[in-house]
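Reading a protein record of the kind used here takes only a little practice. Think of the row as the fold of the chain written in a discrete alphabet. A record is reproduced here so that you can trace the correspondence yourselves:
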Amino acid sequence: MNLIAAVSLLICSVRGFQQNPPIASTRRLILQTSSHPRILTQQTSLFSSTQTNDSKPKNKRRGNKQYNNKKKRKREVGAGKELKNPDEVITWRCYGIDVYPDDLLDPSLNIDKRKEKRDGSNVPSERSYLTPPVISSLLSRLRIKSEEATDGLPSILQDARVVRRSLDARRRKGSDPKYTYVIDIDLTRQAARNLGLAPQSGKMEILDDKKLKGQDDDIANNAEDSQAKPRIVIVGAGPAGLFCALSLASSGLCTPILLERGQPVETRGKSIGALIHRRCVDPESNFSFGEGGAGTWSDGKLTTRIGRNSGSVRYVLETLVKYGAPERILVEGAPHLGTDNLVRLLRNMREDLRELGGEIHFGTKATKYLIEDGKIRGVEAECVEVNERTKSKLIDSEAREHESFKTFYGDAVVLATGHSARDVYEELYKAGVELEPKGFAVGFRIEHPQRLINEIQYGKDWGGRVFTKRPSTDTVNTEHFEKLSEGTEESHQGTLPVASYRLATDKAFDGEQNRGAYSFCMCPGGQIVPSSTEEGELCINGMSFSNRDSLWANSALVVTVSQDDPILDKYRSHGCLAGLEFQRDIERKAYELGGMNMTVPVRHLLLDIHFNACNIGLFLLTQIFSVGTTIDRLCKWCGVFVYSSVILSTWSYLGTFT
């Protein structure tokens, strides 16, 4: 098999992932699915099983008989300690409900959902995923006979809701991929005793109010006199800034004033078009700056590692659905919005924020922070003209009073500026604000045919069951697997989503030391886009539309750089901003290497792996990058430490697929 893999420059990882990376403590490269690890490892029973004769000492047979009879009596209905509130309804969270794709056929389709749509009503996603095969697997786990369920759920269960669905693509001993569900069930305390349910962390849990809690009750629905409301200035209209403003406005306790240096989403698209087609970089409105932040034109993956089933995460997802996101994100284990959905969603969110009393100022770049007596009092900003379109009309900045400079005073200032706003950190540094450097990551973006990733993840027998609803893409994938399985009959009817992957190792040797290397922002069925924010610099990112129907997959592949890394020694004169200067330097070198016209330098990865071809020009077939590509030696500008680490960290995953 010929693998066409392109390595393109990626510096956006320095900007987009400043946290400590998820490096695995293992000597080999680890391949994981995008599903939640905790969900995927729940393979044991949810019940505390009764001890059997085989587990007791065999020389105490009489004792064993009495022991078993005693346990049997306790399992009888109503036996044991009397319940205080037997009719009280409680919610149990059940993990590890497995269903195979062939049983689902179409996992997103439900007969009841289609009926409800014909009737003109709407079925919530948490119930539309509760298909008969899922219910059957749930009843099996609860040890309820399926014939007891007359109309979907048995009478002992008052309600059931799908909280999360993930795909476990690990092929243990040749097993098929399977969907793993997390389901909440409502039943009385007496019913729980009758079923013998026992709480087990990560398997079967009783939910309390804290786990179901979303917004902070202290700030929700507490409207006060508008005359006494404090004013909170928020700098940056990315996800953090927008949700901060919405939460404050919804509370009624204060007035949020949201400042965004970029343009509203409808005008921002024109700036991005100029970058792609005319190679013109607008430093204030681009793939990184503007309404919605970098994620608006960078995929919209919803990733969290802080309790994916918690109430706070649920609140964020429900808010996105309220403003136009597809309901499936409430259930999917790896929720994805897609750039096409985000444009409409952000406009709805903006209008609601204003109706709640919040202010939004686009084209407003914070240039100075007013600090008096150790406290911040406000922000000075530079303003440019803005054209904003609402649902009903076009708001032209020329029709409003326009000021080139304006000061916004507030009782507090929230900085939600993201990693790309270097000038913010430089201004804070000059103002004497204490800053602390932290580690980051730098590397490339790697690109592969999506059909190859489908094959690696799902195997030859399941890879052909991936469908995107785009005929040309699905035809290419189907023909690829027909050739691989020529002469054998297709045995599966279920469908699978386009495959993704995650790689991590802490044994990527750079010639002097081992470094952490990992994949980041993997975009199945996606494309590569330019994300430069300044003239004379080159940076790229990846994205996918909601259907993920491109022929290509791409991912960042990066290595770690600690705050005391020797690679930063030449930049130490910049103090705690040494990492930012390193970023600037490496992006400038990439710009020069590409021909100083926004063309991206690329390499053929597998030939470099097999022949150590760091200085050999190679003909490259790849997805046509929107601004253009050129073949050159990446290691001569990024440093051998980055290139060598990336090459070694991909060997075990891709090296055998040539």
Observations:
- The chain has a mean pLDDT of 77.
- The CA atoms of residues 186 and 572 lie 59 Å apart.
- The chain has 20 helices and 23 strands.
- The two ends are 5 Å apart (CA to CA).
